[in-house]
Amino acid sequence: MTAAPFNPRTLLAESRLGVLATIKSDGRPQLSPVTPFYDPDAGVILISTREGLAKTANLRRDPRATLEVTSPDGRAWATAEGTATLTGPGGDPHGPEVEALVQYYRAAAGEHPNWDEYRAVMISDRRVLVTVTVDHVYGTRLG
Fold first, then answer.
1. Residues 54/30, Cβ–Cβ less than 8 Å
2. Beta strand spans in the chain (E)
3. What is the pLDDT of residues 24-65, one digit of tens each?
4. Is 138 within 8 Å of 125 (Cβ atoms)?
5. What residues does the Pyridoxamine 5'-phosphate oxidase N-terminal domain cover (predicted)?
């Protein structure tokens, strides 16, 4: 019996923990643990973060981004490279910035038990939705 061929996009879609690399102003990478959601049909990775963090500032200056994920056993990895756009932060709980975060949550986790509370927190936390348009995916499975 032969194993199915490895598809790094499948691992990317299954992973809910990864490391996002952005580019600091001095050119060095800045790495952040994130909770990504990969939409293979749209070819995008969605990540919720906060305004004022290093990754947000870096992406506003240089939108190139790379996400790396690994399998739970550490024997497979996938890397996605692309260009990020940022939406938010928003000030209106029903405005487009917060609505984008609602759609992210629904896609990644399903329905929230209290959408009014969620919307209020997205505003108070100054949440930003990072959308990485994926240009290239690669990876491997060991053994």
1. yes
2. 18-23, 29-34, 37-39, 44-50, 64-70, 76-87, 127-141
3. 999 999 999 999 999 999 999 999 999 999 999 999 999 999
4. no
5. 9-138
Q: How far apart are the first and last CA of the chain?
A: 15
Total Cβ atoms within 10 A of residue 121:
14
Q: Are 70 and 76 in contact (CB under 8 A)?
A: yes
Rounded CA separation 136/99 (Å): 28
Q: How far, in Å, CA of 129 to CA of 137, rounded?
A: 21
pTM: 0.91
86 DSSP β-pair partners: 130
Residue 112, token pair as written in the block:
């929230």
Domains observed in the chain: 8-137 (2.30.110.10)
Question: Residues 6 or more apart from 102 whose CB is under 8 A from it?
Answer: 112, 115, 118, 119, 122
